[in-house]
Amino acid sequence: VQAALVLRAIAEKEKFEITDKELKEEMDKTISSFTEKNTAENKIDINRLKEYTIGRLKNERVFQLLNSYNK
Question: Which tens digit of pLDDT belongs to each residue from 8-18?
Fold first, then answer.
């Protein structure tokens, strides 16, 4: 839990933003991983998927930032 809070704080401090295009592409990837797209869209809570995807993308950017300090 503390690690998640630290990642979130870094993302906020660095003002990492996710574009609508990035978000849509990543959400589409997740939905397309299901065998039947219509079934996935009916079963997935799109708002939760959106929040999860935004968080994951911001975390990826934080890790990229942290890794850049090791170079």
Answer: 999 999 999 99
Asked if the model's pLDDT at residue 41 lies above 70, the reply is no
* Size of the chain in residues: 71
Q: How far apart are CA 16 and CA 25, in angstroms?
A: 17
DSSP secondary structure code for residue 44 in this structure: S
DSSP code string of 50-64: HHHHHHHHHHHHHHH
Distance between CA atoms of 2 and 5, rounded to whole angstroms? 5
Structure tokens at 14: 């660095």
Position 34 pLDDT exceeds 80 = no
